[in-house]
Amino acid sequence: MPTIRTKDGAHIFYKDWGKGQPVVFSHGWPLNADAWDDQLYFFETNGYRAIAHDRRGHGRSTQTSSGNNMDTYADDLAALVEALDLTNAIHIGHSTGGGEVARYIGRHGTKRVAKAVLVGAVPPGMLKTANNPDGVPIEEFDKIRAGVRADRSQFYKDLSVPFYGANRPGPEVSQGVRDAFWLMSMQAGFPAAYECIKAFSETEFSDDLRKFDIPTLVIHGDDDQIVPITVGGLRSAKLIKGAILKVYKGAPHGLMTTHKEQFNTDLLEFARPESRDEAAATRARSSDQRPAEVTPPPA
Q: Which residue(s) pair with 116 in the sheet?
């Protein structure tokens, strides 16, 4: 299996498909690179080099008992980028992966980055605090920790329901999709699965987002039951200068699966040079305007 070795000796598994401009995908908790397979193949067949890694402790990467925090996740991503000598890369992060991308840019800058996409992402900060009164109370994250400790297998099966909006009216979410979520989740080592809860829920990313100086697309479903849009996407789009915000009406957290065709189309349009979104972002940055909200019809 292809891996890179980090400075503390962890081995990070990655997929590397195709040739062309690199598009690097960072996955959500508690999944792994397989969560991006549809997008990896889509970008490979459209002339890009599609790359996704298993975060440390997840999937096929080393099941470390240390380093399960956003700074280390970001440094691991930087190590991957440097080992593969990626330049002009487009970074796409979902949920916790969006935090990883934000902290990567915050710690390592955008010298090797062309564009960024945050999808249902945890930035700028999920936890309810005095500075984030609309955030999620710590008790909700304590419930997640308790569920993982008590019976993580059943917890992941139950989590797949709100993750894909299977408890909402509309298109049916197949049992196969939910089973795949469970399988990926069970491949995460216990230390990483447990400690990552603190990482994605209590890390504050506002300063990282203010350092974004590249075209950025923020995508969020307005029925996201895992990272509410009012906590994530709406706030991130305001902090990232010139960001483009796309709200998917009725979409859940796992919209890359439930709204796959729309999502892939939007990603490809944004990735292409001189795209409409890039031009809009450039105009917004030059005039220092707030991002415009774009709400496509449901797929």
A: 91, 216
DSSP state of 132: B
The DSSP 8-state label assigned to residue 220 in this structure reads E
d(CA 79, CA 12) in angstroms, rounded, equals: 9
Q: Is 120:224 a contact under the CB 8 Å cutoff?
A: yes
Which residue bears the tokens 């069970």? 186
What one-character DSSP code corresponds to residue 33?
G
101-144: pLDDT as tens digits: 999 999 999 999 999 999 999 999 999 999 999 999 999 999 99
Interatomic CA distance for residues 280 and 176, integer angstroms:
38
Nearest to 50 by CA among 83, 31, 26, 28: 26
Strands 22-26, 49-53: pairing is parallel
Say which amino acid occupies 186: M
CA angle, 114 then 117 then 123, to 5°: 120
Question: Which pTM does this prediction carry?
Answer: 0.92
CA distance 97 to 82: 18
Query: Are 298 and 248 a contacting pair, CB within 8 Å?
Result: yes
Residues annotated as catalytic are 95, 224, 253
**Helix intervals (H) in the chain:** 37-44, 70-83, 96-108, 138-163, 175-186, 190-202, 206-210, 233-239, 255-258, 260-271, 276-287
pLDDT tens per residue, range 11-67 = 999 999 999 999 999 999 999 999 999 999 999 999 999 999 999 999 999 999 999
Please tell me the distance from the alpha carbon of residue 164 to that of residue 32, in angstroms, as a whole number. 16
CA distances from 162 to 9, 176, 231, 246 (A): 36, 15, 17, 21
Contact 22, 43 (CB under 8 A): no
Pairing of strands 11-17, 49-53: antiparallel
